[in-house]
Amino acid sequence: METLEQIRDRLAAQFPAASLTLVVNPSPAAQSSLLIAAADAAAVARFLRDDAALQLDQCSNVTGVDWPGSVPAANAGSERTAFGYMEVVYHLYSIARGHGPVVLRLRTGNRTDDVTLPSLTPVWRSCEFQEREVFDLFGVVFSGHPDLRRILMWDEFVGFPMRRDYTEPDDYEWEPTPHGTVLEKAQRHSSPAP
C-alpha cells in the first residue's frame, strides 16, 4: 500500500483545489491521518473507494472527538483556536486489496453553530449507524445522511454527553434500589426544602 504522504500527493493532483493536511501522530502507534475540508470530503471519499490501487471499500470505524476552545491547532505549534471544534475520524480499509487503515478527519467550523459535515454514508454504507452515534453523543450534524436521529439517547434527551463540557443533570437517574451517588441524588430530590 502507498504511504499516507503518497496518497495525499495523489489526492492533491486529482483535486488541486482541495484542502488536504497530513496530521502526524507522534504516539507509539504513529497512526497519522489526513485532515480533509468538509467541502472536499465526498469527492475525496469516492476517489479513495474507487481508485484501482487503493480500493478502500470498507469503513470500519467512525468516531467523534471534541476539541474545546484554547487547544493547540493540529501541526500549528503554539497557534491556538479560541472556539474549539469537533472532529469526525474515519478508519478505512481495503477488503479487496487487504490493506489499511487510512485515517481521515473532518473538522467542524466550531462547537456551537457550525457543526455540519457531509455524511459519508452514501460512499460507505457502514458509516450510517456510526455517524448517528456521533450525532447523538457529540452533536455533529451530517448533511445527506439517510436517517439522522438519536441512536443511544432518548428523543427528549438534552445535550451531547460525550462533549467535554457536558454536565450531567442530577435528577434524571432513577433506580428501584438506589445506592452510592445515585442514592445521594435521590435523597436530595426527595428531601423537602428547608
Summarize the structure.
This protein has one domain (4-153): Beta Polymerase, domain 2.
Detail the poorly predicted runs.
Answer: none
Quick one: biggest sheet? 5 strands, mixed
* Coarse structural class: alpha/beta
CATH topology: Beta Polymerase, domain 2
Strand order of the largest sheet: 1-2-7-6-3
Strand percent estimate: 15-25%
Radius of gyration: 20 Å
Annotation, overall tally of beta strands:
9
Global morphology: elongated
Going by CATH, the architecture would be: 2-Layer Sandwich
CATH C-level label: Alpha Beta
Entry keywords:
single chain, 194 residues, alpha/beta, Beta Polymerase, domain 2, five-stranded mixed β-sheet, two-stranded antiparallel sheet, 4 helices, elongated
Structural overview:
This protein has 194 residues and is of the alpha/beta class. The chain has a single domain, classed as Beta Polymerase, domain 2. 23% of the residues lie in helices and 24% in strands. It has four helices and nine strands, in the order H-E-E-H-E-E-E-E-E-E-H-E-H. It has helices at residues 4-14, 41-50, 127-138, 180-190; strands at 20-23, 33-36, 58-67, 71-72, 80-81, 85-94, 99-107, 116-118, 141-143. A five-stranded mixed β-sheet has the order 1-2-7-6-3, covered by helices on one side. A two-stranded antiparallel sheet has the order 4-5. Strands 8-9 form a two-stranded parallel ribbon. Strand 6 and strand 7 (99-107) form a beta hairpin. The chain is elongated. The N and C termini lie far apart (69 Å). 24% of the residues are buried. The mean pLDDT is 89.
